[in-house]
């Protein structure tokens, strides 16, 4: 057993995690990844320029991933176009191959290695993933193994490449797969050395309920978002590929990326919050006790309309002082009700969004949500336009052509606030283009 693992187990002796559990976790890591396997020239023992996919691959996993994305969009993609959509996704994405387990060294055999290939079969990304589980099946021993493995890798990467350039989180729906966040507890770290990006995620979530530790090497000159990732990571210092990030031409949206964008948007419309048992009809939420009514009136006497709505947004967590969350939510919704009656589009949108997404303990009521969102949209609120577009896309309201209705609302939103709805509009156009081919 490594001295590193023994030191960690000793350090947590007084903690809530039993040292025996830590030692068991360490027992799974008897063959740690070597420094040579972390080299940028041959990451994980794979060459950037001499890769024989047929000799080392155990199959192309592009199709299952595409099928999963298309399945998430059942409300958008008619059954007759499912096969064509999956085919477009597979043909448009990098060929993703997994290395045969018997060809992996002992240090990698407890996880898995995959390689994303470009059209000319050159590696674009080389990735190692460890202890992949599907939630909620994620026992503490497995989580500890991920943490210990990542700690060992993190130490070696720091020795090889210095401190990471950025920390943040993994986002499979982001074009770069990474969101910069300087917070101390962010799970992913990035290094860049000689045009190779290295991302270590102590834990990342993929396809909504899959969780794993991952180490990814990205060839920045081959990845379509390589330059964007480099500039984003190095923004705190300087960008080596452009003086201004805006000079980088936006990438062409792939069919897979379009599916991911729509899937993330649709997930919001299928809010799990609406399945909670303690939700109340909007009229009940607006019905306040005498004490809470007095708190609300003290505020509405000072602020009206948009100013009242802004006050409610800014002070949502502090309304009423030391009171229950349910009472605070009811006071907040009462303030929005008054602000909306005084012509605030933002307040109207907030009421409509609460009715659609079950915010603030409000029970879902699509018909009422539509009415409030339409009032807000008529006054130019782009958030309301986007929610109405999603409502149409998910067929939550009766429309003759749900996709056309959604596109019209997204176009209206993009015109009203350039860029706000542009990503969803482009993705919807990309996905539905298949229907006309």
Key features of this structure:
17 helices; globular; alpha+beta; Serine Threonine Protein Phosphatase 5, Tetratricopeptide repeat; 437 residues
What does this molecule look like?
- With 437 residues, the chain is α+β, with helices and mostly antiparallel strands.
- It folds into 2 domains: 31-252, no CATH class; 268-436, Tetratricopeptide repeat domain (Serine Threonine Protein Phosphatase 5, Tetratricopeptide repeat), CATH 1.25.40.10.
- It contains 17 helices and 9 strands.
- The chain has a 9-stranded antiparallel β-sheet with strand order 1-2-3-4-9-8-7-5-6.
- Helix 1 runs antiparallel to helix 2, helix 2 (19-27) packs across helix 6 and helix 13 packs antiparallel against helix 14.
Strand-helix topology:
Elements: H1 3-11, H2 19-27, H3 53-56, E1 57-60, H4 62-72, H5 82-92, E2 95-99, E3 112-117, E4 123-134, H6 140-161, E5 166-170, E6 178-180, E7 188-193, E8 196-206, E9 210-219, H7 226-233, H8 255-269, H9 282-286, H10 290-300, H11 305-314, H12 325-341, H13 345-357, H14 366-378, H15 382-393, H16 402-416, H17 422-432
Antiparallel strand pairs: 1-2, 2-3, 3-4, 4-9, 5-6, 5-7, 7-8, 8-9
Helix pairs in contact: 1-2, 2-6, 4-5, 4-8, 8-17, 10-12, 11-12, 12-13, 13-14, 14-15, 15-16, 16-17
């Amino acid at each position: 057993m490594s001295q590193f693992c023994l030191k960690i187990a000793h350090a947590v002796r007084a903690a809530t995690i039993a040292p025996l559990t830590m030692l068991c976790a360490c027992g799974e890591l008897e063959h740690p990844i070597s420094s040579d396997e972390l080299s940028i020239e041959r990451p994980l023992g794979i060459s950037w320029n001499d890769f024989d996919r047929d000799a080392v691959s155990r199959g192309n996993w592009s199709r299952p991933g595409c099928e999963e994305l298309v399945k998430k969009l059942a409300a958008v993609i008619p059954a007759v176009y499912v096969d064509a959509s999956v085919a477009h996704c597979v043909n448009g994405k990098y060929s993703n191959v997994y290395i045969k387990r018997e060809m992996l060294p002992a240090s990698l055999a407890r996880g898995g290695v995959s390689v994303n290939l470009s059209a000319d079969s050159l590696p674009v990304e080389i990735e190692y993933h460890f202890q992949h589980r599907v939630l909620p099946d994620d026992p503490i021993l497995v989580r500890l193994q991920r943490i210990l493995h990542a700690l060992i890798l993190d130490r070696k990467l720091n020795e090889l490449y210095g401190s990471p350039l950025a920390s943040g989180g993994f986002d499979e729906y982001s074009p770069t797969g990474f969101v910069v966040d300087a917070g101390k507890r962010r799970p992913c770290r990035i290094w860049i050395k000689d045009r190779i990006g290295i991302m270590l995620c102590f834990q990342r979530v993929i396809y909504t309920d899959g969780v794993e530790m991952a180490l990814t090497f990205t060839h920045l000159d081959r990845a379509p978002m390589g330059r964007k990732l480099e500039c984003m990571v190095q923004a705190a210092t300087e960008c080596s590929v452009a003086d201004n990030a805006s000079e980088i031409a936006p990438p062409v949206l792939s069919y897979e990326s379009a599916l991911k964008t729509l899937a993330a948007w649709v997930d919001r419309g299928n809010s799990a919050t609406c399945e909670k048992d303690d939700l109340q009809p909007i009229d009940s939420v607006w019905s306040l006790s005498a004490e809470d009514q007095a708190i609300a009136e003290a505020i509405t006497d000072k602020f009206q309309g948009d100013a009242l709505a802004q006050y409610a947004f800014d002070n949502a967590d502090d309304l009423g002082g030391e009171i229950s969350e349910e009472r605070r939510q009811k006071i907040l919704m009462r303030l929005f009700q008054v602000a909306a009656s005084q012509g605030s589009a933002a307040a109207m949108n907030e009421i409509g969004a609460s009715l659609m997404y079950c915010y603030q303990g409000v029970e879902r009521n699509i018909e009422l949500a539509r009415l409030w969102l339409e009032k807000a949209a008529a006054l130019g609120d782009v958030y309301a336009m986007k929610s109405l577009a999603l409502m149409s896309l998910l067929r939550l309201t009766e429309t003759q052509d749900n996709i056309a209705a959604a596109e019209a609302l997204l176009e209206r939103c993009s015109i009203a606030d350039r860029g706000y709805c542009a990503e969803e509009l482009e993705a919807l156009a990309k996905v539905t283009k298949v229907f006309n081919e």
